[in-house]
Q: What sequence folds into this?
């Protein structure tokens, strides 16, 4: 206090409002438009800032979980520091494709025996499997004709449905897959565990808006149409991936080294041609959930028929380079 006072004293107290600092920063693949840092009085509002994504990316959120963009912090009572988060744009692709093995020419649909029998659920433990799923496939995109020289090669799983449409492997409400890459023109390759792979006849424009490619309408939808990359299911379409590549080496072969037929017999014990085995196996060429070597709906005869039905040394290979 005042001391040794000898006269009147008049004093005035001076007060300063508290101020706070607002700091905005950008994570990888983006920048901030607006003032940062900002000094703001207690209870006042900051000025707007905008998170700007680099080309091929998009803004996701701020580090405090806010998704406001532009963002204006109001009624400030403390220092604030947040970072904008960005993600690569995901391109969308939908395809229609058929597998010869499970295709029924009477209904125009593929059988869903693996789903109805529970074999898909037993194999893909914990996965969400959509009704009427036939099996899983792999959808690959590449920016060059051959994978060896492609700068971009991406592969994602999908569920194949009875009508040839697809569902995203994780979010089965989506009738397309998403691929982490920038928009561009890509060859589309479809792979299945016991059918010959096929590839689009030419590059397909793929972007943030879903692109649709239908392999089933013509042989010319697949690369190297002169080599008959797909099976004509009725003589006038639709077209399906050739069944019988049990060992997945890209060639259907009935006899000799690395043939596909013997794998079926071996799985069934190698002695009894009438033996059968239920489950999810690559040897189940027609995907009915039953591996069978002889008799009605057996898996061996599909291989022989696809090779012409007369020459046991004949082979057929994928046209995907």
A:
């Amino acid at each position: 206090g005042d001391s040794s006072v000898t006269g009147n004293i008049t004093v005035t107290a001076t007060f300063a409002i508290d101020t706070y600092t607002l700091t905005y920063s950008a994570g990888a693949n983006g920048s901030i438009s607006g003032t940062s840092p900002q000094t703001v009085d207690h209870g006042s509002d900051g000025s707007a800032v905008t998170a700007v994504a680099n080309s091929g990316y998009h803004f996701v959120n701020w580090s405090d979980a806010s998704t406001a963009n532009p963002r204006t912090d109001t009624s400030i009572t403390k220092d604030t520091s947040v970072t904008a988060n960005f993600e690569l744009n995901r391109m969308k692709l939908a395809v229609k494709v058929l597998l010869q093995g499970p295709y029924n020419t009477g209904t125009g649909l593929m059988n869903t025996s693996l789903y109805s029998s529970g074999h898909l659920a037993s194999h893909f433990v914990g996965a969400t499997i959509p009704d009427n799923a036939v099996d899983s496939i792999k959808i690959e995109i590449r920016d060059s004709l051959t994978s060896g020289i492609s700068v971009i090669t991406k592969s994602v799983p999908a569920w194949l449905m009875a009508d040839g449409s697809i569902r995203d492997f994780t979010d089965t409400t989506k009738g397309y897959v998403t691929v982490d890459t920038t928009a561009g023109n890509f060859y589309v390759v479809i792979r299945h565990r016991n059918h010959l792979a096929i590839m689009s006849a030419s590059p397909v424009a793929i972007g943030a808006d879903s692109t649709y490619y239908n392999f089933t309408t013509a042989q010319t939808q697949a690369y190297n149409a002169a080599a008959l990359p797909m099976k004509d299911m009725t003589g006038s379409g639709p077209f399906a991936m050739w069944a019988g590549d049990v060992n997945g080496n890209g060639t259907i072969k009935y006899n000799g080294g690395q043939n596909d037929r013997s794998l079926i017999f071996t799985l069934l014990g190698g002695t009894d041609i009438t033996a059968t085995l239920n489950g999810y196996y690559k040897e189940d060429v027609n995907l009915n959930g039953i591996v069978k070597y002889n008799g009605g709906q057996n898996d061996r005869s599909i291989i022989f028929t696809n090779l012409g039905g007369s020459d046991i040394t004949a082979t057929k290979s994928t046209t995907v380079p």
